[in-house]
Structures are given as structure tokens and as C-alpha cells.
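Researcher: First entry.
Model:
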Amino acid sequence: MKQRQYKVRIHSVSRFIIAMIIILCSLSFILVEYFPHVENQFISFLQFVPVLLISLFIANKIGTAKIKIVFTSEAIIHTWERKFPLSWERDITIPWGIVDNYVFQNDRTFDSFIINLKNNTRYKIDRQNMFAEKDDFKKLVKEFPRLSNNYRNKEVCRKSKI
């Protein structure tokens, strides 16, 4: 069976929240200390809107990474194309023999695709669904059950021949 490849943008909620808090507090401090104080609440709000938008944009960039997932006859291979800033994660290889089951969870702002493994760990992909993104996440979720069964059955047949 030929290799299947999927390119997905993943999101780290914890990195996003931490970055958002730090950037929002820093930019708010700069706004309060270095810009003139305005008595009009509407003008103050208009000054804060760019701070909020800049914080959201930068935090989103910090909390986003790009990965490539390749299904081979031996394993699922997770390769980082662009890592999260300040992260040291390595590429991951998951043999088909330890794949137990999978779960797709749809939330208001994030979709999660979780592969449970037989060694009581899990492989999880979080993807933001508020904005349209051009990646292969939906295709991965749709094709995973069929491909998983094909690859696992192929591995069972190969082990039985040995």
C-alpha cells in the first residue's frame, strides 16, 4: 500500500493562552505608561482595540505549528515542518502495532483528533476551527479509520507469516 501524507496546522492552547497573557499585559503597560491618558471612555476603548488585536495575532502565531503526518505500512510518522517557538519536540514514529483506537472531538473553537495507544499514552492533534485553514486535517480524520484498518490488517498478516 502506498504512503499517505497529510499536512496539518496544529494549535497549542496552553502556549496561546500564556503568550496572550504576557503580550496583552506588556502592551497594556506600554499603552498606560507611554500614551497620553484620555478621559473619554470611547477613545480609551479605541486605543485598546489595536493592543488586543496585535496580542491575538502574535499569540496565534506563537501557538501554531505545522506538521506532516505520513502513514507507511510500518508506522505513523509525525514530522515537524515548523515547530512552536522555543520548543524542542522531536519527530514521532508510532508503530501500527501499538495503535488501539481513535477519537474525534469537535468543540466550539477546537477540533481534536486523538489516537489512543496500547501503552496507555495518546497522540493528540488540536486544530483551531474558528477561521478557515487550508490543510489536510478533515481529510486525515475522514480517511484514518479506513487506512488504520488496512495498515493494521496488513501488519497482522505480516506477523502471522513470520
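Researcher: Second entry.
Model:
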Amino acid sequence: MIDLVLARRDEALDWLAELPAHCRVQLCQSAGAVEDPHWPTPTWVHVWRTDTGAAGSHLQYLQTLAARIARGESPDLDPAGWTVFAPADALRQAPALRAQLASPALWAEVQPLGRRAGSAGAAPRQAHFCPVTLAPLGHVDADAVQLAESYRRRHALASGENLLAHFLDLAGLHGLAGQAASADLGIAAPEGVFAVRNDRVLALLHAAPDALARLDALLRSEALYRPMLERCWLHLFALPFVQLQPLPHPAQVPAELPIEVPPAMARVVASIDALLARSAPPAVRRDRPIRPLPSVGHTGLRLSAIDELRPAASARLTPAQHGAGPAWWPDPSQIGQVGARLQAHSLG
């Protein structure tokens, strides 16, 4: 059995005439809405006093079931059956919904049923979004940007605050808020059409009746919370959040290990070292220290070598040759001051 829970204001219901026989309609209608002659049989009509959108209608339906359980009554849900939540114009949002209702065995325990517009053969898609910014993946959603900005201003939240976790905390769903805070992505049904197996519906009704009441109070207080709840539906029924796999860490470089050298190789290396030591050239010995050469005037010339050679040169000259240079010696007037000093050293 499939319970098709439809949130209606004044949408046409003629498409319900072709539902499979195992479907029954739970019509959640706002007060003052016009009745439709195409209501199928059996149809349970729940009339709400206030209009809190499709999310509010679905929430009030769950509260009705929770109230039955609290009174000790049966919620009339087959644990092996399904509940499909959708707006009353679900066929426009999910063109292949009638065909999908005929084969619920193909569904997951929590199953979005919306399809992309104009792609009747496409499989149902999930809308992944960031729980911090509410932005969807793959495209820019101006409504999501405006919703995030309005929610942050309403609660004076910092830009990096996890909005979905904050909303779930407001509803008293602290465990689910903790999961959202550590998640990378949330999952929503983009067209608001999704199926839940009834055992998960019953688990929510037994575990969180107070949270349902708090969510209802939030939706009645401000319209801002309605799209927040629409992003939480699948996770309220225990669909896990998405956590991306962390990047792999680089392999640890092992510490330098000692190299085990075979004994034969060690002997070869030792013999090569000994051979290189014997073939090294001897160190140069300097028996006589090198005397620094004195400077000569401002020219920076050092003439110590000339001083050493001058006595020997003078001894070879005859007295007549003293005072006169060789034949090739230039005229002192042409060699400048440095040349004259060199001549005086060599011949004086």
C-alpha cells in the first residue's frame, strides 16, 4: 500500500483518477480551499486551519499520526508499505510519477521521485547542497542565496556558520544537527516529491514527536523556516548526509636505513681506499719562509728580489762601468720616476 500525501490549496486533481489500485490519497488541504470533484476513492481529507505551505501540510499530517500513537491508537501504516509526500500538482513536478507508483519495489528506503523538466526517461535525481551556504551543486540558485542571507541576518550568524545544523538545533533535533555540522553535503528532493518506507516514518513518529511540534511552531512563526524544512526532509527520515573522502596523505618517507654491505664488497672498498691514499702526491715543504716584499713609494712595487740580485751584479761590473748603465739602458729622462729608481737600485 502507498499513501500519497498531497499538500493542496486549489490545484486540479484530475490526474488522480488514473492512480494504481494500491494507492490511497491523504489530501492535506488548507482551510477555505475549493473542493475538487475528481477526488479519488478512498481519499482522506485533512483540513488545516493555517496555510504553512507544502512543508507545513506534510508536517501536520505527521503530527496527526503522532497524536494517534500518543493516544494509543494505530497510525494505520503498514511498515512494509510506503508514504509518498508531494504537492498536489505532483504530476507537473514529476512527469513519470504515475509510472513510478506502479513499481515501488524499485525504490530505496528514502527515495526522491522528481525528474528534470523535459527528461521523461531520466532517473530520479537528488539535489546535493552545501549545509553551510544552502547553495546547490552544479548551478546558481538565487533563491538559495537569498534564503541563506535572510537566515543569517535573522539569527545574527557568522558567514561560516552551518545553517542547516542551526535550524535542526532550533527544532530540538540535536543529534541530527551534529551530523549536519560535520557533513560536506546535504540531500534534498528538488521538486519536493519523495517516497519513504513506512518503517522509517514510524521510527520518526516514535522518536521525535516533540521535535515535530517544535518544527510546526517554527513554520507558523515565520515563512523563512519552510524552505529550511524542505531541505531537511530526507534526513529527518534517516537518510545519511554526505561526507566526502579526504585527500590521501602522502606516503611517509622512512628514516634512512643502514646499508648492509657484503663482506667481500667491504674488502674491495677498503683496498681501493688504501690504494688512493698511497698514490696521493706528497705535501709541498717550504724550508724557507717567504719574506714580504717591501713597498716602494706610492707605486706599490716590491723590489726585494732586485735588492738580492744587486750585490752580485755590482761585483761583475768594473769600476768604470759603475755609474753608467748598459748600452741598451734608456735615458732616465724618458723612463720617468719609477725607471730612475730602478736604475739607481741596479747600478748604485
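Model: Note on the second entry: Residues 53-70 form the longest helix (18 residues).
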